[in-house]
Amino acid sequence: MNMPFYVSPEQLMKDRADFARKGIARGRSVVVLAYEGGIAFATENPSRALHKISEIYDRIAFAAVGKYNEFENLRVAGVRYADMRGYSYDRSDVTARGLANAYAQTLGTVFITESKPLEVEIVVAEVGAQAADDQIYRLTYDGTVADEHGFVVMGGQAEQLGRRVKEGWRADLSLGEALRLAVAALGSGEGSTPRTIEAAQLEVAVLERDRPRRAFRRLNRQVLADLLAQGDDAPPTDAKPVPEGGPPEPGTPEQPTGEQPTEKQPTEEEPTEPTEKPTGNKPDDGPEASGTSSGTDH
After folding, report:
1. β-strand 120-126 against 135-139: which pairing, if any?
2. pLDDT reported for residue 5
3. Using an 8 Å Cβ cutoff, are 31 and 186 in contact?
């Protein structure tokens, strides 16, 4: 009778964790960050059929990295959980925290009992009526739940991209600024030279705070390209420089910007008469030389 091969529980859990991390590292990263008007999701995904960012319920969204078939099953299970709870109780009873706890139980059970863990890492986010009410939860392959604040980056190069996002993130970012920050972070992930990611290669969605019921909105390529191209601090192109003395008063003719105008110089055709005559006594002028004349024409 052959004795079964023994593996310690610590070594077994370590091997499963290493296996799951290697599978997740092969996937493209996802950046989730809060901005002034809600929560934005961005990832590099050229596929138009397979989505890594999806809607779960009215104000709840889902993003994932790893094996598509595994996190797609989790997404479908989350939609069913939300629909059933909202139908049985009330729509306000469906929260990101409850959904994150349900996902944590599933991921933890599979990691412990199954021979192969799920090679996925997911984010569940809910936008609130105010920025302080926003909720972002990150769940790893073993069912660990982390309550994130402001932003979260997951995927193979999460640590490097997270430092890049941390440098430029602030709570009052506009949507355009948030997306430009996320795309710049995604482009700095591979190699030492940053690369430019076109709008056609991105998958971007937002949870907008001001939308009345369903807050989720997926951005198409044209809208995304416009947001990435515009700069909030760029000066208008039709602005004219203001002269040093300030703008001219109404009715004042504009002066040319070249040399300053000078007084009209006399020409050969326009002789001028001197305005003053030389002073002093003239020799041999007779008795007038000793008068009191001022020397000017009268």
Report:
1. antiparallel
2. 76
3. yes
Spatial separation of the C-alpha atoms in residues 11 and 218, rounded to whole Å: 43
Burial class (CB in 10 A: 0-12, 13-18, 19+), 105: exposed
> Of 158 and 138, which is predicted with more confidence?
138
pLDDT digits (tens, 9 = 90+) for 131-152: 999 999 999 999 999 999 999 9
Q: Which of 155, 121, 183, 141 is nearest to 26 (CA)?
A: 155
Task: Note the pLDDT of residue 291.
Answer: 45
Residues 6 or more apart whose Cβ sits within 8 Å of residue 250: none
Which residues on adjacent β-strands are paired with residue 137? 124, 147
- Residues across the chain: 298
Give 277's contacts (C-beta < 8 A, 6+ positions apart).
295, 296, 297
Evaluate whether 154 touches 71 at the Cβ level (below 8 Å).
no
Radius of gyration of the chain (CA): 38
Residue that has been written with the tokens 């009778």 in this structure: 1
Q: Is the pLDDT of residue 289 over 80?
A: no
Sign of CA dihedral 137, 140, 142, 144: negative
- E strand or H helix that includes residue 79: helix 68-88
**DSSP character for 278?**
P
DSSP SS3 for 131: helix
pLDDT tops 90 at residue 271 = no
Q: What pLDDT score was predicted for residue 191?
A: 61
